[in-house]
Design a protein that fits this description.
Blueprint: E1 3-11, E2 16-23, E3 29-36, E4 40-45, E5 51-59, E6 64-68, E7 71-73, H1 80-92, E8 94-105, E9 116-126, E10 138-143, H2 144-153, H3 159-171
Parallel strand pairs: 4-9
Antiparallel strand pairs: 1-2, 2-3, 4-7, 5-6, 5-10, 8-9
Length: 173
């Protein structure tokens, strides 16, 4: 990809906004604005009894609460599995014996460069949750079949959660 005139328009707490011109084949140069994000990790905690723990939390960007897998932002250079264990423990108090990779995906590649790594957490033990000061989290435990039904019906709207459930549902059959 050939670019020119790159500049950072905004440096934020979580994201930066970069503008650049990109040569699009024989169609010439076109202006793009890209949101730069450090990436994230999500973990679907699967209990031995076939239930999963999801979390309900406020998402101001969408004006309400969403049901999601526990997840968080990667630190620069951080191993995704380390991030996944940390975020799962902080948000739910759960610690997995095993983290099974469920792959990665781009949630919105037309605008963001963010990559989300997904894991299935198994062999869970319960400890104390320690959410961030700005997080108010409610844990919701349900059979994985119910979570899959909610994802398919549109009751679960979070993309990383839908992706993790579908990938885990295929892997656990």
């Amino acid at each position: 990809m050939e670019t020119r005139n790159r500049s950072v328009l905004f440096k934020g707490l979580v994201v930066d906004l970069e503008q650049m011109e990109v040569r699009v084949g024989g169609k010439g140069w076109h202006l793009y604005q890209i949101v730069r994000h450090p990436g994230g990790v999500g973990v679907l905690p699967l209990h031995d009894d076939g239930t999963v723990t999801l979390i309900r939390q406020l998402r101001p960007a969408v004006g309400g609460h969403l049901l999601e897998i526990p997840a968080g932002r990667l630190h620069p250079g951080e191993d995704p599995a380390v991030c996944g264990r940390r975020e799962l423990a902080e948000e739910t108090g759960l610690s997995p014996r095993d983290l099974v990779p469920l792959g990665r995906f781009y949630p919105s590649p037309g605008v963001f460069d963010e990559v989300i790594h997904l894991f299935l957490g198994t062999g869970l033990s319960q400890g104390e949750a320690a959410p961030e000061q700005y997080e108010e989290i409610q844990m919701v435990r349900m059979p994985i079949s119910e979570a899959l039904r909610r994802a398919a019906s549109g009751e679960i709207l979070d993309g990383k959660t839908i992706t993790a459930l579908l990938r885990a549902g295929s892997a656990t059959r």
